[in-house]
Amino acid sequence: MSDYKINTKCVQGGYTPGNGEPRQIPIIQSTTFKYATSEDMGKLFDLEASGYFYTRLQNPTNDHVAVKVAELEGGTAAMLTSSGQAANFYSVFNIATCGDHVVASSTIYGGTYNLFAVTMKKMGVDFTFVDPDCTEQELNAAFRENTKAVFGETIANPALTVLDIEKFARAAHAHGVPLIVDTTFATPVLCRPIEWGADIVTHSTTKYMDGHGAAVGGCIVDSGKFDWTAHAEKFPGLCTPDESYHGITYTEKFGLAGAFITKATAQLMRDFGSIQSPQNAFLLNLGLESLHVRMPRHCENGLAVARFLKAHPKVAWVTYPGLEGDKYYALAQKYLPDGACGVVSFGVKGGRKAAEAFMKELKLAAIETHVADARTCCLHPASATHRQMNDDELAAAGITPDLVRMSCGLEDADDLIADIAQALEKA
Ligand SMILES: *Cc1c(COP(=O)(O)O)cnc(C)c1O
After folding, report:
1. Where are the beta strands (DSSP E) in 209-342?
2. Fewer CB within 10 Å of terminal CB in the chain, N or C?
3. Range with the poorest average pLDDT among 318-327, 352-361, 378-387
């Protein structure tokens, strides 16, 4: 598939049926797989042979869809996870464990911030959060001896900061560690971070990739480009024998193209078990088949709504990286030339109360803890996803108490704007 354009990969990537085989990816709804001898099975357990033995680790339906996402992102290997949270956790914990340190952008998604700053901190992994707009010098100063990775989001949810991927990749590589980019809001249709120097990308496939609010899921893609062996002392998990697999060394046995994802599957998926169900992988693939058709409409509607809001007297401010004059317009032009997704953040004049009153009046846009759906939805992060943060943490995450996050769906832009106009009128 690698020679085809992204539109073709969306439709046909990951699965090529043979003669007389199903046209659509089969849902292998089976926990387990049958073998003739214990010896056959033993080879699978030792990673001596590739194949399926238990769906907690791998399932053929998932693998077809993971291959499609790898093709879309330009990576060498990928795995599906039960959620975006699981994908981000695995992507970091696969290389940073107790006693290690990670540099992360401060504007990342609230759930990821909590995972890093609270839960993974309890596991002994330390994080330093940096302003994504910091200078190269400030970024470099955040690294320590024990830093193992750098983490950011292409378009941050919901702050809508655009990551200068090249700047972050340069700093990561200068310190011998990979850059991990959560690229949920961009999708590979709008930006492929690996082309800009990212080493590993993650997704909450729950969002645009599914696109219909049907299935929670996640994905990790490895570029296969980061040379773990050149910094072997930093990455013993990949470069020294794994005693739980009879002493195999992932980089030796699976090469740079396969080491990261094989380790994440063999160790983390085995032990934590956050696998995506084959049924959800099937639904995800249906979403991927139209991703390249849906994303331009999400972007168009996002831009139309952002322009309307910007000109409205009851709106205090608008953030949309695709909007002329936005703080991130230049970075968006560089990294997201085909559009900046359908999510718009703005403040209603009158603060928190006015934001809540406005949202109550909306008819088409539903109040939901969700984004990137075919149907327009909106959220007040300060009282929902980010409510565990104090005001300082909110500010560092780029969120003000009046912020409304509006995820523009695939409806007619005129209808969306009319709905927003009547709600602003009443608020
Ligand atoms: C939603 C989201 C997540 C978490 O994904 P889930 O599928 O809800 O677990 C992670 N990162 C970003 C950018 C998100 O928008």
Report:
1. 218-222, 315-319
2. N
3. 378-387
